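Exercise: predict the fold of this chain.
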Amino acid sequence: MEELSIKIRIAEREYPMKVKRDDEERVRTASRLINEKLKSYKDQFGIDDKQDLLAMVAFDSLVEKMTAEESRQGIDQTVLEKVSHLNQLVSQSIL
């Protein structure tokens, strides 16, 4: 897979990166979303310190990831229970 050399900007700092062509849009979108969250926190809380803002964004992003993961696990469990129930119904109808 071909890699591209790109530069992304986060918190007014530029970071050179090598990414797979298929990941370029995702990486650029992630950079944009991080910067939007940084601006939102800066405006909302009046914080100018970049390290504090980055820590808040990292924390918020991890909480969102954990919440999504818990939700996915709940959905997976529900699907497994329904498949198991359907298997029981099929087994009973065959007998």
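Check your answer against the key: Residues 50-94 form the longest helix (45 residues).
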